Fold this sequence. Notes:
alpha/beta, Rossmann fold, Universal stress protein, UspA, Universal_stress_UspA
Amino acid sequence: MKTILIPTDFSENAMHAIDYALQLYKCEQTVFYFVHAYADEVYGFLKNSADTSISERTTNIEIRVKELLNELISIKEEKVHNPKHTYKAIASFESLVDAVNDTVNLFNIDLIIMGTKGKTANKSITFGSHTVQVFKYVKCPVLAIPETYTYQHPKKILFPTDYNLPYKRRELKLLDTLCQEFKSEVHCLHISDFEDLSMRQIDNKKFLEDALPNAYLSFEQTAVQNRVTAIMNTIDEKAIDLLVMTNSRHSFLEDMLYRSTIDEIGLKIHLPFLVLQNLSR
């Protein structure tokens, strides 16, 4: 039984992410938690209005959000008719990150699936601020789905790695399950000028092989260049369906998330992006 959390602001991007999730886990017994965090709506309204009390405003928004979530579930149950799927609605008077974190911990969530941008995001950016915050602060794998992406089975997966940091078995099991379902190739891309690996790198590479028994694994190396260029070129050359990266202390992804925006360094991803969290949970 898989537990999937899907944050939604009821935007087109969020609806698209839900449709992708239902397709991805079409054949698997899955509980989907649709979460809407509405604290920002309450406080945003109160800044511009002196007439409504916070409790009244909170109650009004909570009622509306629950109605929207229940309507969403009714629509999906009516259109999809999948007996393997169960839907739960959560209206949370918290920030998005807090609501997602609490739901992850309460229901032992396996994966978060969300759109790359919310309804207020600039259309020219790759990832909206909410998506990046979830990447950074929630200790659970996150799969971000671009609004323009048409669903395809993730048969070709790119996994850039330097083998320097140990992986978490639970995170890799999630990836291995997808590989088993879709008979996927996983292209491990090592960006380095050095062919010889350290003992630690050899151990981590071996762990990766052992933890992905259902993947068609290939190990490739490219000389050091702009890492983003290497990733984007490989995506194009191999017609990749899913990009996987690991967020951990001192990793390339952490550097992107904390020191600059993803867009500033040119990582413009137009395919599903799975962020594994190599952080204590």
